[in-house]
Amino acid sequence: MSTQTPGARQEIRWRKIFGSTTVHVILILFLLLALVPFITIVLTSFKDSQQIMKGAFRLPETWHFDNYIKAWAQGRFSYFFRSSVIVVIPVVTVSTFFAILTGYAFGRMQFRFKRVIFFLFLLGIMVPLILPQIGMSIAFGTFWMYGAFAEVPRDLEDAAIVDGCNSWQVLWRVLVPIVLPAILAMMVLFFVWTWNDFLMALVLVSSEELRTLPLGLAFFQGRYTTNVPLTAAGATIVALPVIVMYILFQRHFIRGVTSGAVQG
Amino acid sequence: MSTSTAAPPRRGRPGRRRWTPFLYILPGFAIYAVFVLWPIVDTLRYSFFAWDGFTAPVFNGVQNYVDLLQDPLFHIALRNSLVFILFYSILPIVLGLILTMLLVRRRIFGLVVFRAGLFVPYILSMVVVGVVWRWIYNPSFGPLNQLLRAVGLDLLARPWLGDFTWALPAVGFVGMWVQYGFCMVLFIAGAQRIDETLYVAAKIDGAGETQQLWNITLPGLRGEISVALVTTLIAALRVFDLIFVTTRGGPGNQTTVVAMLIYDNAFVLNRAGYAAAIAVVLTLIILAISYAVLAVRMRYMSQED
Fold first, then answer.
1. CATH number of the domain residue B212 falls in
2. Tell me: the pLDDT tens digits for A131-143?
3. Is the confidence metric ipTM above 0.90 for this complex?
4. Would you tell me which of A242, A260, B36, B224 could form a disulfide with B190, CB atoms 3.0–4.6 Å apart?
């Protein structure tokens, strides 16, 4: 590798002197841009109404944990939380199960009207209508699992068939264990989407008790426009489960979103 | 396995019975059909009716579509949606590409932290994003105006979301904030998949690092760029919740977008038939754009082969 042109060598030197620090500074700036807005909201959630006037980036002088208690009880976030959990669990489990089945058929089998049915699933992802998350999730999950199953080598399946497995056993005993990371990533995606979903709840839910967290927060913000710390506490409550999920499954999640998008 | 791949054994392979695949598809498809396909068909149907959402719909042919073409509000919303494409799609992709170029093929300390952190805005609920940015843009005590006043730029401090000139860019910036991390993460993943031998070969041929980025990395990301284009374009045209929680289309109609118009007509103004027609037109626009991007991508791919 000693046959580098002078130009290339000069460029490497340039990158060594100028590049590394600059790149890190630029990255840190963008990292701050991404994180600081939400961090200031978390800080604000611990302040009182006087403190927020003194500077958004300051730490709270006294930490007001009672904002959370107020939001949880008086702000009815306890109800919203329960509604969200009640919605999320069936949506994630049901759509995961059926997406595995449809993805299996598309990824490993040949049949008539395959392209037509595939296109019908694609339509649901593009339409700008307010549609139930479960339907959208199954559509997306079909593409997702199709991509995951299509990558598994044929030999494994053939070996299982020689051993006398039927298609159902091949799916659950051979294929599912192999594509488990993809399934996990898909479930995290379903969780985040359903948890964050606001539109469907906005259109469907009329009674206050049944509001999900994002919907409850939206109305809460409208009612308490002047009480910023309380709204900030509410926003933190809504975001926290997703952030925890994200930290736990960060790798799966990022790889999921990117590879899923590329396949889709 | 000694079985030749040219003639796979048909006996025993899953799906050998003609109806087996359909058994796997049926339950998922049934749910999908009830919750997605049926509403789509319904929307298409009602777009040809005058309907308030409650009383019996009255067929009125293409009248909704004729009205739509002449509706000045639709033109405003369409224009705003196009501006949104800039913030939601073009800028995040350009920014994501620049950041990826800086990152790629270099040792970055804490790359995992950067990647994970830059992605955070993308996972937050739009309602949370709305709360965060309404607070940042708040005219009297928002951090942005606080910051401007602290550095003596009092002149620039303004009620960002209530300003006729600045509301749309201010909301657009939030959209960019949500999307750029996603684009960057997508591109980094793509760049890591590029065959290392291409770079080695380029080096032997005497190509500098900038040339390598330009001639190997960028073309190598073609697939990811088209994917980012399609997904962010669809997101840009569908954007509703961000507007709903920040400005509700105001001030005036400065931030009204097409999806906002659908919602207002369907659930506020009780013009469900008209709302359906807008939804159909927006769907056609989305399909056309997606098709165009994918068609261009296909042409490039077939040229390469």
1. 1.10.3720.10
2. 888 988 999 899 8
3. no
4. B224
The verdict on residue B259 lying in a domain is: yes
For B82-103, write each residue's pLDDT tens digit: 999 999 999 999 999 988 888 8
Rounded to whole angstroms, the Cα distance separating A15 from B106 reads 10
Contacts B29 to A, Cβ<8 Å = 102, 117
Helix axes A66-73, A228-248, angle to 10 degrees: 90
The 3-class secondary structure across B200-268, one letter per residue, is HHHHHCCCCHHHHHHHHHHHHCHHHHHHHHHHHHHHHHHCCHHHHHHCCCCCCCCCCCHHHHHHHHHHH
Q: Is residue B231 part of a domain?
A: yes
**Residue in the structure block whose two tokens are 């359903």:** A194
First to last CA, chain B: 31
Work out the angle at residue A115's Cα, subtended by the Cα atoms of residues A110 and A118, and round it to the nearest 5 degrees: 100
| Average of per-residue pLDDT across A41-52 | 87
Question: Based on the structure, what is the number of domains in chain B?
Answer: 1
Domain that holds residue B278: 65-304
CB-CB contact of A77 with A120 (8 Å): no
- CB of B54 within 8 Å of a chain A CB? The answer is no
Q: Which contiguous run of DSSP H or E holds residue B50?
A: strand B49-50
Question: DSSP code of B18?
Answer: T
Residue B2: the pLDDT is: 41
In a domain, B3, yes or no: no
Q: Annotate A50-92 with DSSP letters as a single string.
A: TGGGG-TTSPPSS--THHHHHHHHTT-HHHHHHHHHHHHHHHH
Please give the mean pLDDT across all residues of chain B. Answer: 87
CATH homologous superfamily of A76-263: MetI-like (1.10.3720.10)
* B13 touches A at CB < 8 Å: yes
- Can you give the pLDDT at residue B1? 39
Count the neighbouring beta carbons within 10 Å of the beta carbon of residue B219.
13
Range with the lowest mean pLDDT among A39-43, A48-52, B151-155? A48-52
The position carrying tokens 């118009």 is B261
Give the model confidence (pLDDT) of B214-240 as tens digits: 888 888 888 888 888 988 998 899 889
Separation between Cα atoms, residue B267 and residue A259, nearest integer Å = 37
The verdict on a CB contact (< 8 Å) between A37 and B207 is no
User: Chain B residue closest to A189 (CA)?
Assistant: B123
The residues, any chain, with a CB within 8 Å of residue B128's CB and separated by 6 or more, are A38, A214, A217, A235, A238, A239
Residue B255 lies inside a defined structural domain of this protein: yes
